[in-house]
Each structure stands twice: as structure tokens, then as C-alpha cells.
Design goal:
This protein has 245 residues and is an alpha/beta fold. The chain contains ten helices and ten strands. Helix 5 (118-124) crosses helix 6 (141-153). One of its GO terms (molecular function) is ATP binding.
Amino acid sequence: MAEPLLRVTDLRKSYGASWAVDGVTFEVDRGETLAIVGESGCGKSTLARCVARLAQPTSGSVRLDGLELATLSRRRLRPLRPRFQLVFQDPSTSLNPRWTVEEIVREPLRLQGVRGDVPGLLSEVGLDPGLAGRHPHQLSGGQRQRVGIARALALSPDLLVLDEPVTALDVSVQAQIINLLLRLQEERGLGYLFISHDLAVVSAVAHRIAVMHAGRLVETGPAEQVLGRPSHDYTRALVAAVPGA
């Protein structure tokens, strides 16, 4: 059996005496989207930060193509970082306001010492390359998130960790970004770990869903099964709370 792109095993993250992530295990294959869903405060974003190694797990394993990431030092992690990138929730705070679009998208390339096609990246995410000289405040929310996605794609990753990537956007713009993510996944074969509290959004993007409650995964399965025939009481409550459910 082929090794999954991402394998997370018994991952834990504590803050003092409290477990934000408590024994979480899951896998993500190439070209697949696993959505982690749950209410605010359940540990979703902490999980995303641990997988992306923006936070150090307390214990457990995070393997990318069989390579252990959880215990690596920053120096040893650096050459692997191009393979997994994070797209943040709010592009208005995740982009440097002093930099132009060109500088923002080129920064990961500069850090890794490689060349890249910034105009090509902008075109790939649906932006006019002529916007390269603008600053984030001169762009719409949807355009800013496209810049964030272009930055994440610059080093040709295998995995994107998407932490509530459309929550800060208007509903009409959400659909555009979701369609962009679906197209990029098909074209690049990307694996997505998609963090969200919005089951309507998740239903449009996820192949599988893992439901998180109080730091633990309480139900995991194909998206249509989890949304259509939930087995856990907490999942049933989440589904029942969706307008029109």
C-alpha cells in the first residue's frame, strides 16, 4: 500500500494543563481534501499550526511522504518546508502591508534561493500580473487571498494546510476562491488539509471529513456519509445547525 502524503499519528499539543489537541490521528492522500470541522475553540487551528510546524507538537508524529516532521529542528526542517505550505484565514493580516504583491509572492523563493515566475503565479490564481506593484490595501479581500495562495504555491508544494481560507470573505467571493482551490488541486495534484467551521463550505471541497470536538476527532469518514448519515451526536448537532439542513 502506498504511503499517504500526510500521516498524523496520536498528535498532542498542550498549553499548561489543557490539551488543545489530544491524540489526533488521520491521513491525507495526494489529490485529496480532508476537512477538519468543529466549533471555534475545538483545537482546529492549533492542529493546523502543528502540522505546518508553526507550533511544536507536545508529542505524536507528523509524517510527510514518510518523513518525520514533528521532531525536526528548524535547521533540518527548512529544506522540507517547500513541500508543505499554509494559507491563512485573514489575508488582511497575513500579508506584509509594506510589501508589494511582487515582494510578497517572491519572498519564499528568495528564502529558498530559487528563481520563480511571479507573473505566472499571479495568472495561475486569477490575478492580473499588472497588480504586482500594488500593496495589499489596494486590493479587494478576494484578491488578497489569491495573493496568499500564490505565495503558498511559489515553491510547488505537495500539501496545503488551509486554515479557514474563505471565512473572512463575502459569500460570492468565497465561491470564487473555492473554485480556484478545486482547479489548482486538479491541475497540481495537491493534498489539502482544510480547516473550517462551515459545513456548507466543506461540502463543496472535501472528499473526507474529520469532526473535531474538545481536541479530539469524534468522527471521520467520506464527506457524503458524515454530512448525510452522521453517527456521533456532536456531528448530528453540527449538521442540524446548518441553515436549510
